[in-house]
# Entry
Amino acid sequence: MNIETQQLRDIAGKLLSGKKVDLVIGFEKGSTPGRSRPVILKSAADAARLVWDDTCSNNLTVYLPELFRKKPAPKGQPPAPPPRIAVVVKGCDALSVALLVRENQAIRQNLVLIGVPCKGIRDPKTGGIMACCEECASPVAGIADIKIAGESRKPSANRHGRVRELENMPLDQRWRRFEEEMAKCIRCYACRQACPSCYCRECFADQTQPKWIGVGNDPSDTMMYQLGRMFHMAGRCVGCDACVRACPMGVDLRVFTRKLAKDAEEIFGHDVAKGPECEALLSTFSEKDKDGFVTDPHKKKGSH
Amino acid sequence: MTDRKDNSGKAWEPKIVAFLCNWCSYAGADLAGISRLQYPASVRVIRVPCSGRINPLYIFKALQEGADGVLVSGCHPGDCHYISGNLVARRKFTLLKKMIEHVGIEPDRVQFSWVSAAEAQRFSDLIREVTESVRRLGPARRMVKKV
# Structure
């Protein structure tokens, strides 16, 4: 057991026994070797279950919107107060917390963020470091309340390498790549369930009025779903790759989810990695936004 | 180009779905009609209250249903009837255009413009230009539902 795990158990035990929090969300040993899984602890005696190592891949903030959701109270009784929750967060998870707080899905005063040092997560399929970690711009959870001592990765210099690879291909090759990846998708929606930014009570993919996505296995429906979800992630995807890890078919989602993030940074200066200082992308505008995308019939085509 | 046939054997003509904002672009199109300006009959108009109302899913849906091209047109920035609808839309459209090109759909299939209520000639020129650029691309094959 490493030092970080011991520290984590001590901290969680103190928080729970001192009644500073109602719940501690962390990782415990998984059911198969080399895997870990999320765990939600309610009593100090369980703190010994916690672990921290490079198999702890999940973005634990995915549980927060549901836990903070206001539940109707029984008749005549006042509503229950929101829970106080301690969460183990890596650098990427802390960005999700900043996003959820900004979008009113979590209450910052009720959160105790335990920042863990992260050298990158091991990909269970290949054994190497995951692509998201190699492109990570914020390995340290800056907004953490309690920081576990230890060394983290350095921020990456090549944040959007995978997206750039795709951008450099010609149009038809990009389409073939998109088609290939979408052919793998079985619309299980595991990506949506794993993503902390996807907390809508009714997802557009499940709506019947209007019916955006057909129920059959036509590839264009799968493309509608993925394009729609990517677009809902514009400026909100933190690049944790929880969707990639959750996908049972190995669809390469990163080259599509990060495209919008890259454009948001380069065109609008919007960077989720700024954490709490970052503003919402699509509900704000600037007078300086450019009109490069417009077709002007009286001007020669050219600059975009 | 002229030997392209559609399903019924007739020579293929582009079908373009145009989302026009009620206050500016739709009025501009109406003025073009009143002024008897000729422009290609390839456009099927859907009137929306504001370009800011456009959900990217509408555009994807139009492509899925077989539209060869999609045009979205609104008021000039600064002139929106709802003050800032088109300003909010600008960011959406910028990202949308880049996303569509990123996944490999021909960028000329989805076009955006600002047309005001007085710009009848500009509207008909716009339709002519959009029709020609879509005609060069041929019938839409990507993202079309095959039912």
User: Anything to note?
Assistant: Chain B is about 35% helix and 15% strand. The interface with chain A takes residues 56-57, 60-61, 64, 71, 77, 84, 87-88, 90-99, 101-106, 111-114, 122, 125-126, 128-130, 142-147 of chain B (CB under 8 Å). The first strand of chain B starts at residue 16 and ends at 21.
